[in-house]
Amino acid sequence: MRHTISVLVENKPGVLARCAGLFARRGFNIDSLAVSVTENKAVSRITLTVAGDELTLDQICKQLDKLVDVIAVLDHTNDLVVERELCLCKVAASPQQRAEVIQICNIFRGECVDVGNGTLTFEVTGDEEKIDAFVRLMKEYGIKEMVRTGKVVVPRGMQPTQQ
Amino acid sequence: MRHTISVLVENKPGVLARCAGLFARRGFNIDSLAVSVTENKAVSRITLTVAGDELTLDQICKQLDKLVDVIAVLDHTNDLVVERELCLCKVAASPQQRAEVIQICNIFRGECVDVGNGTLTFEVTGDEEKIDAFVRLMKEYGIKEMVRTGKVVVPRGMQPTQQ
Hints:
Two copies of one chain form a homodimer.
Chain A: E1 2-10, H1 15-25, E2 30-37, E3 43-51, H2 54-66, E4 70-75, E5 81-92, H3 98-107, E6 111-116, E7 119-126, H4 128-139, E8 143-148, E9 152-155
Antiparallel strand pairs in A: 1-3, 1-4, 2-3, 5-7, 5-8, 5-9, 6-7
């Protein structure tokens, strides 16, 4: 089962390596991970998705929580959340194909952010399934290059993550 | 000076921990990092931003390149790139303030993705400066919670990253 976990940590060198190391030692593969500062410059927020058995993952979360620079660990698996991911995708498109490819992008409410000699670069945001669907369609034209940020989540309504 | 580095790696457990460890051992703080799969499921792409002196960073990049599961390392500092970041921001807003806050979001071409009892959640994408500006404005209303993905980049035009 896929889990999405938020880890609030002190913004210091080495914290990310220690957190990632905990998963690595158990042989867990982190599918995606995004880390950046929060509204408080001293605190960073790591959002990661990982697949694995419930029990071991629960242990890893408890060990994460014990690390000195970790402030909070939250598993969002059963929460109501807004989840989003961003994808930049450079697609092969001849001048004749451009209109067609841009039309698909518009359906996904994406934006064309660059055009080159035979390429178009799109920015698309949405949940994982939406991005997957967009990428599947673009594969038919030929993806030159693609980068995804990995999922970030915020709980819906009033429920806070940071307590 | 801030550097943006792309690292293409094999999608295996432990690779991220080893890459992050290289920076940690030199005392470099990774400001943001995003990792996710690429169009090839066996390959993940790490995009990270880090500040530090040119020389040591250059050494780290060379060491990264030598790691067994690393396919390519690219420093985008002097490249022409499209850079994007996504931010989910939950802001305190009474029903009376909603219109005002949503107006600011519209100016930033953001989207309101959730509304709670006294809160609004926005999705905004753009480069780092744009997100910073948005967050600064939202601070006046009171940010309840915020998460950013960290920067991802794709070179403009035909220049490929993956070779």
